[in-house]
């Protein structure tokens, strides 16, 4: 106010605020032009354009903030060396480079020294991004903060970030954050949908159930609320309210999933038959045959060759001979899937297959002699598998559960996609990118 003039200064305002101000000015114009005290008011016409188009200089001044670099500096702690005497004991402290030495002397003359490292505080560089607790977005109206989201997976992030393979470590770190974010969003969506579908009677029943659960938990953990809080904090790192909230969310989610997903994951008898035909080879695998072998070098083991021939003449089996010679696994050599054509279809040399044909289990074959070695083979055993038909109850139950699990996952993903369009108020991709960026800034070195 200068002399008899009233000057009105305005800052940039939103359209709604400008409209309200124009209404107020119009109301004031109906007065007789006199203020209390006899001061004349200068009337100037005002329009919406005066408030909605601020100059670039005003905008730059309003959005630019300059800070003294000293504000970024860490506090400097100074420790003065002095001698303190109190009721006998003497204590002194001396400060070196990076450490402090504290010397104490008791009345009986005993001297104790303790080295204390100086606390180092990192100075954030000017104009360098510094990750802080920040609002990333909203899921069904609930704010998502970066610190709250990253804290449960921080240990796994640090472990992956310390991997020597930097390229793979970075990829795994990003995938970990993305998977955790997807699970978080899905959980929030399911809980929000479950809460929205509760009637008044169901809400009252839920509160009563939580109250009874709290009483049971307190009784199990010592009988008092303080003891229960301490026990839960030591065991699970949460308060009793957080524990009850977790159980509540899990129960609501399970109930809603059963209601929405299970009716759509129906498995018919035709589906079971089709799945049985697709996996019949896995359900009824072919029998397997175990082949044993003893192979000796004739140039260096002439005595053992003679010993084996003597044991064969005595009627010993190949596993018994292998045990005498000290061969591991009773002479077992290789195991093959037995094809429909039998031994003729094994991937072996013709000379070996011919010696195995019609050979009793365990009996050594005729020797296969080469220039510098001699070999005996034998069939150590054939493992037959019981054929299971599609009418086997265990087979039907297994196939039904596999198909139901697959269809439940498909229906669950489809249902969650529909929930995302209804409940999520922010762009999920942008929120995920922000979380990945903050995680890399915090943990990636």
Question: Which helices and strands occur, and which strands form pairs?
Answer:
Layout: H1 15-28, H2 49-52, H3 56-63, E1 83-85, E2 90-95, E3 99-105, E4 111-117, E5 135-139, E6 142-145, H4 146-150, H5 154-161, H6 166-196, H7 200-220, H8 225-236, H9 240-260, H10 269-278, H11 280-283, E7 288-297, H12 302-313, H13 318-325, E8 332-337, H14 350-356, E9 368-369, E10 373-383, H15 393-423, H16 428-443
Helix pairs in contact: 5-6, 6-9, 6-15, 6-16, 7-8, 10-15
List keywords for this structure.
Triger factor/SurA peptide-binding fold; disordered N terminus; alpha+beta; 4 domains; 4-stranded antiparallel β-sheet; 445 residues; elongated; single chain; 10 strands; 16 helices
Description:
48% of the residues lie in helices and 14% in strands. The relative contact order is 0.09. The chain is of the alpha+beta class and 445 residues long. The strands form three sheets. Strands 1-2-3-4 form a four-stranded antiparallel sheet, with no helix packed on it. The longest helix is centred in the middle third of the chain and has 31 residues, at 166-196. Residues 1-44, 46-54, 57-66, 77-99 and 116-121 have low confidence and may be disordered. A hairpin with a 2-residue loop joins strand 5 (135-139) and strand 6. The chain folds into four domains: 15-63, no CATH class; 72-128, no CATH class; 133-279 and 393-445, Triger factor/SurA peptide-binding fold; 286-383, Chitinase A, domain 3 (Roll). Helix 6 (166-196) packs across helix 16, helix 7 (200-220) crosses helix 8 and helix 10 packs across helix 15. The chain contains 16 helices and ten strands.
């Amino acid at each position: 106010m200068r002399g008899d003039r009233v000057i009105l200064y305005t800052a940039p305002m939103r359209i709604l605020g400008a409209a309200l101000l124009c209404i107020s000015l119009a109301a004031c114009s109906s007065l007789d032009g006199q203020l209390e005290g006899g001061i004349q008011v200068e009337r100037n016409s005002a329009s919406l354009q005066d408030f909605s188009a601020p100059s670039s200089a005003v905008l730059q001044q309003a959005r630019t903030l300059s800070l003294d670099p000293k504000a970024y500096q860490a506090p400097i702690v100074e420790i003065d060396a002095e001698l303190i005497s109190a009721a006998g004991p003497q204590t002194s402290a001396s400060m070196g480079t990076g450490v402090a030495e504290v010397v104490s002397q008791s009345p009986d003359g005993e001297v104790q020294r303790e080295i204390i490292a100086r606390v180092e505080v990192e100075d954030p560089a000017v104009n360098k991004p510094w990750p802080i607790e920040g609002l990333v977005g909203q899921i069904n109206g609930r704010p998502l903060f970066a610190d709250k989201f990253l804290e449960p997976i921080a240990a796994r992030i640090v472990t992956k970030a310390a991997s020597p393979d930097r390229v793979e470590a970075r990829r795994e770190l990003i995938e970990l954050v993305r998977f955790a974010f997807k699970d978080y969003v899905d959980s929030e969506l399911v809980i929000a949908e479950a809460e929205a579908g509760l009637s008044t009677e169901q809400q009252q029943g839920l509160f009563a159930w939580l109250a009874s659960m709290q009483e049971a938990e307190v009784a199990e953990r010592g009988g008092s609320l303080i003891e229960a809080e301490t026990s839960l904090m030591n065991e699970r790192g949460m308060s009793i309210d957080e524990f009850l909230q977790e159980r509540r969310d899990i129960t609501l989610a399970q109930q809603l999933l059963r209601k929405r997903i299970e009716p759509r994951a129906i498995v018919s008898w035709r589906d079971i038959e089709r799945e049985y035909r697709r996996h019949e080879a896995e359900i009824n695998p072919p029998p397997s045959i175990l082949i044993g072998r003893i192979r000796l070098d004739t140039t260096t083991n002439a005595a053992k060759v003679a010993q084996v021939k003597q044991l064969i003449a005595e009627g010993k089996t190949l596993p018994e001979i292998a045990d005498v010679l000290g061969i591991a696994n009773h002479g077992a050599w290789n195991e093959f899937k037995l094809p429909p054509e039998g031994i003729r279809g094994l991937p072996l040399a013709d000379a070996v297959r011919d010696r195995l044909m019609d050979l009793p289990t365990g009996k050594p074959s005729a020797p296969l002699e080469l220039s510098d070695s001699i070999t005996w083979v034998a069939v150590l055993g054939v493992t037959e598998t019981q054929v299971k038909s599609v009418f086997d109850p265990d087979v039907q139950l297994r196939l039904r559960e596999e198909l139901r699990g697959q269809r439940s996952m498909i229906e669950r993903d489809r249902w969650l996609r529909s929930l995302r369009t209804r409940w999520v108020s922010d762009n999920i991709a942008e929120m995920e990118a922000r979380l990945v960026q903050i995680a890399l800034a915090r943990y990636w070195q």
